[in-house]
Write a structure and sequence with these properties.
The protein is mostly helical and about 350 residues long. Among the domains are: about 10-115, no CATH class; about 240-355, no CATH class. The chain has 8 helices and no strands. Helix 1 packs antiparallel against helix 2 and helix 2 (about 25-40) crosses helix 3. The protein is elongated, with a radius of gyration of 77 Å.
């Protein structure tokens, strides 16, 4: 990064600011600024220029101060030679000669000063360039330092992470060592259990042999039971055949009972018709009371017939059940069909009672 050289206007403004601090009075400040412009910067001072730099007082103030400055400068530049033996013309010429010499000496001094200023300015520029170069080097050094600092911080973070990972690994290793010891203990227990299991296996083999012998006996018993079951099934088939016959008989009796019910209903219809005819003919109430109603006689007859049918059915069912029981006991099987047949006849015989 290269620093731009400071211009004369900037240096002049800086000097004026410094003079403002040193000379608080306005006229003194204007006089010093005139000397600064003329002697140091080689600029002929003007009232406008002075006022632009100082900005104090009115426009008349820099004009009056500038007139005084030129008068003082002419007075100082005039050389007077006082000698009693010299004529006035010689004294005047000598004074002008001295003034000319002073002017030329001042010009030479100003030229030397300008050269010196140029040298100083060149040295200043070189110094500024050196400073700029040093600043660039410093910036590069700072950048490199920041990069190294960042890398160092990253390395420290990585080291911290590795330390944490190492601590976790150590903890995991300790846990694994504990699990390994536990597994070894379990392995010893497993070996002992294996020995016990082998002994149990031998005992189980003996028990299996015994069970096989018992199973063979049970198989023989099962075969015998199978034959007995086949015989029982055949007997049960015969009982089912008898049960079918009994159900057929029961159906026949129920048909007879239904015919009796229809007869009873016909009797009831006749009685009702007779009553209707009697009421229509206007028969006396006494005659109807003295004569028994034909419907009642018919109803009583129907009831008796139904009771007789039920009694016959129950007697026949008991007889058949007794026969089935005797047959079953004689064959040596369980008499399971007879009670069911009796219950079925009782259920079937309940029809007339419920209808009644």
């Amino acid at each position: 990064m290269t620093t731009a050289p400071v211009s004369d206007d900037a240096r002049l403004a800086a000097e004026v600011e410094r003079l403002k601090a040193d000379f608080p009075k306005t006229r003194d400040l204007y006089r010093e600024v005139c000397a600064l412009l003329f002697f140091r910067f080689g600029i002929t001072p003007t009232a406008n220029r002075l006022y632009q730099l100082v900005h104090r007082g009115s426009m008349g103030t820099p004009t009056a101060v500038l007139s005084e400055f030129w008068a003082e400068l002419r007075e100082k530049s005039r050389v007077r030679i006082e000698h009693p033996d010299l004529p006035a013309e010689v004294r005047q010429a000598a004074g002008e000669l001295v003034a000319t010499l002073w002017s030329r000496a001042s010009a030479a001094a100003n030229a030397a000063l300008d050269g010196l200023r140029a040298d100083v300015e060149a040295e200043r520029r070189d110094a500024q360039q050196s400073v700029a170069k040093l600043g660039a080097d410093l910036a590069r050094t700072e950048t490199a330092l920041e990069q190294r600092t960042t890398a160092l911080l990253s390395a420290q973070v990585r080291i911290h992470e590795l330390e944490q990972s190492l601590a976790s690994a150590e903890a995991a290793r300790g846990a694994l060592d504990g699990e390994l010891a536990l597994l070894r203990e379990r392995l010893r227990d497993t070996d002992a259990a294996l020995v016990q299991a082998q002994a149990v296996e031998k005992r189980v083999a003996l028990e299996v042999e015994r069970e096989r012998a018992a199973s063979a006996r049970l198989q023989r018993d099962a075969d015998a039971a199978t034959h007995a079951l086949a015989a029982a099934r055949a007997e049960l088939q015969a009982l089912h055949q008898q049960l079918g016959d009994l159900r057929h008989r029961n159906g026949t009796l129920e048909g007879q009972l239904e015919a009796m019910r229809e007869t009873n209903a016909a009797y009831a219809r006749e009685v009702n018709a007779w009553r209707d005819r009697t009421e229509a003919a206007g028969a006396p109430r006494g005659a109807s009371r003295e004569r028994p109603a034909p419907g009642k006689r018919g109803t009583a007859g129907a009831k008796k017939a139904a009771q007789a049918a039920q009694a016959a059915q129950a007697a026949q069912a008991k007889e058949e059940a007794g026969q089935a029981k005797v047959t079953t006991n004689s064959k040596g099987t369980q008499p399971t069909a007879a009670p069911r047949t009796t219950r079925q006849f009782k259920t079937g015989g309940s029809g007339p009672r419920s209808g009644r």
